[in-house]
Amino acid sequence: GPFQVVQAKTSFLRTPDFKDFAPLKSVGRSVARPSKVLKRIFQHPARRPPGIRALCILGSVALSLKLATGLTSVLTSGLTSPGPVRLPSDGSRIAAVNGAVSAVGGSRTTRSLPLSEQALPLSPQHAVPLSQHAVPLSEQISLLRAAIAHGHVDATAHSNLGYALFQAEAIDEAISEFRAALLLDDSHTAARYNLAEALSRQGETSEALALFQRIAAEHPERETVRYRLALAYLEDQDFTTAVEHLSALLAEAPQHQGAQLQLGYALLKLQRWESAAESFRKVVQNEPQNAGAFFNLGYAYNQMARYDDSIWALQQALCIEPAAIDVWDTLAFALNGAGRHSEAALALEHAVQLDPLNANVFVRLGFTYAQLGNLDAAETAYATALKIAPEHENAQASLELLRRQRTPLPIPSTPQFLV
Questions:
Q1: Cα gap 245→263, rounded to integer Å
Q2: What is the pLDDT of residues 21-65, one digit of tens each?
Q3: Which of 181, 318, 340, 385 is at a distance of 20 to 30 A from 281, taking alpha carbons?
Q4: Residue that wins the pLDDT comparison between 94 and 77
């Protein structure tokens, strides 16, 4: 109640160094509107913190109390003091970044940015797991921009703003913020890592690769970084180097399923079918519900004309994902290869029911009907493919060939002799 509010205010005014959050947390538990109490504390005329300091402290406290709504208006209410503001000591700056930068996270998470939490140099007593934050992205971005506009200009602030923009799919703006962070602090690993991720998203694979190479050289002990570097080689179409890095990683961490899966993919691109199949076999042994691994295993078997093995692998994939069009299509290829044309036709008929606008599947269905001698159905399938995609070259060529084969040769009016 009111007594606890007074206690908290008194404690805060005596120790404005961000270290004693216990009284303020007590306030949050004892009143219905903790944000209102916090505003009263920080607006106390005796010791009102200047500008960015209010934002820093109040932001940290609000996050520690998990205030999810109205955080922007509460925090920005402290940004009224004119003139430049000098941040306090390094220890306080850690908490300031945690609060003023609003501890980028929110309910959305981005799998491809494993170093994102390191953009926030949190001290143990102030750390709040990102997954617990419920601050909407729009509010995070507003808070970060407000902090920078009012004097909190450092690499971490720009890096965290970039990360929030990345999550909001504003990739170009995110790239600008990550670059700004690196201009202020070229050693900021999180900014460099997330810049590389953003560039990769935009298709700038060569620059992204160079950034990942530097991070891996600076942190060779970090498995996550080494794995991401290998993926960068894949994205840059350097499959041979990707295989080298993934193989080296697996030699040290044989249970790394992501590396094993990506190794199989790189080997497929190099047409090393047997090695690729071996890699995918290891994946499905440890992940029997990995439909993608079963599909790629079946594809590798197809390339080696091991159709029975391919059929088994693709059937496993369909047990996991029964509506996967590509799997039904590839299964039909294997069935045709094994001479099981009737089953191939059934597989493709099911596929076109799932995706009636897939011209490629209709072309393969036409071929399968032709193998069964059902030329009328084959012609209908080819014609349907052309209705969907009038410029489909395979459909045009197959239909023309089929019609030539079905047209009887004219009976000559006079005998023809070989000369």
A1: 9
A2: 445 445 444 444 545 555 555 555 444 443 444 444 455 454 444
A3: 340
A4: 77
Within its chain, how far is the Cα of 160 from the centroid?
18
In this predicted structure, what is the pLDDT of residue 411? 55
Q: How many CB atoms lie within 10 A of CB 165?
A: 25
pLDDT score of 227: 94
Spatial neighbors of 205 by CB under 8 A, at least 6 apart, are: 199, 232, 235, 236, 237
Task: State pTM to two decimals.
Answer: 0.65
Q: Is the pLDDT of residue 2 over 90?
A: no
- On whether the CB atoms of residues 245 and 253 are closer than 8 A, the answer is no
Q: How far apart are CA 56 and CA 49, in angstroms?
A: 10
Q: How far apart are CA 282 and CA 302, in angstroms?
A: 18
Give the DSSP letter string of 141-177. Answer: HHHHHHHHHTT--SHHHHHHHHHHHHHTT-HHHHHHH
26 CB-contact burial (10 Å; exposed 0-12 / middle 13-18 / buried 19+): middle
**Contact call for residues 79 and 54 (beta carbons, < 8 A):** yes
